[in-house]
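It would be a great kindness if you could assist me with a short task in structural biology. I am sending you one protein, given as its amino acid sequence and as whole-number tokens for its backbone shapes. I would ask you to consider whether the tokens describe a fold that such a sequence might reasonably adopt. The full record is reproduced below for your convenience.
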Amino acid sequence: MEAELAHATGSHRIPKSTEPRFRFFRDSAIVAHRNLLTIMRVPTLLVTATVQPLMFVFLFAYVFGASLGGGMYREFLIAGIMAQTVAFSAAFTTVGLAGDLEKGIIDRMRSLPMSRLAVLMGRTLSDLVVSMVSLVVMTVCGYVVGWSINGSVADAVLAYGVILLFAFAMSWVGALTGLLAPNVEVAQSAGLIWLFPLSFISSAFISAQTLPGPLATIAEWNPITAVAATGRKLFDNSAPPMFRPATGWPAEHCVEYAVLCSGVILLIAIPLALLQYRRVASH
């Protein structure tokens, strides 16, 4: 890998025409390519990213779905599973980056003339590709269980775009968590322990209006709720009649709120991840 990065980033003098903007894009692409090659050589990593959402689809669609509205619940469910799955991509980034730190790969990259941001950008971009694969798998699985896209093609493209933007934002949260974790074992726990309550205290699987007291308020403003609601709105998927319709500003402006949440997460997570990367690299 050192040879590949050294050759690509260049230990020799880089022409001025490639400095520094084009060099950053090139370095990010090289790191992303390296991470994707790792996944191809260790396919169990990709299996984890695809099998887990399938398990949730079949579990909720057929084990719990019969008592929650049957076919109509399956139509309601898929957008929520998509939102939950891309949120869980943060854990994928956390473990991957913590593993690179533990193996000394980050130290090798630091010794090369490449942008610090490119190291983290490459990791988040490669994990964004994994999220795309997961969405393709879930889309196919959704059609198998009776879900469908009822809206226009433009609306569907926008829905997938909002979901992937959220995936990218959550990957940066995962990158920050991975840099803070002392080892891979801690990273595995830290990457998931906060994601489970975040995904379940939302409208990913049920109507947020049915949650008691403050939990309903948390679910109403939860970014996962906004992303799931955006998917349902743009895919034109309806909820079972027994589900109370969501109310309030986040529900009425779910698309705008989902984009806003992703933007705020990026504005906070990217600088913090870069700061932590400098601290780790200086040791």
Q: What stands out?
A: Residues 1-17 have pLDDT under 50 and may be disordered. The chain has 13 helices and no strands.
